[in-house]
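The authors assume throughout that readers already know how a fold can be written as discrete tokens. A single example would do more here than another paragraph of explanation. An entry of this sort, consisting of the sequence and the corresponding backbone structure tokens, reads as follows:
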Amino acid sequence: MTLQDISNLDDIKLLVNTFYDKVQKDDLIGPIFNERILGRWPEHLEKMYRFWQTILLEVHTYSGTPFPPHKHLPTNQSHFDRWMEIFTSTVDGLFVGKLAEEAKVRAANMAYMFNYKIEYFRNLENH
């Protein structure tokens, strides 16, 4: 199978569905996601389709602020490392090209920012 670049909403859905299927089964980060999302996986996946479609395809279907729902997650650097490991392997297993690389860069930037902000707010609350 020759891998292609991410080019449309179906590709975004394949990426998101494959990624979150792996996340839900992961021993480290799966419980965090499954506990908070519970029976709302379809709703979460729809939101993620819109988010990545907006970022990668410049089809502006997502509006909102992604950080607040993550502010109080019981996470540390190891959780974000695993998230990136799963995301990167998912992208690399499905796609190759400019937008595939852009997806990994954007995900890495988000993981860094989310972890930094979570730590910042956690430290503020503990002082």
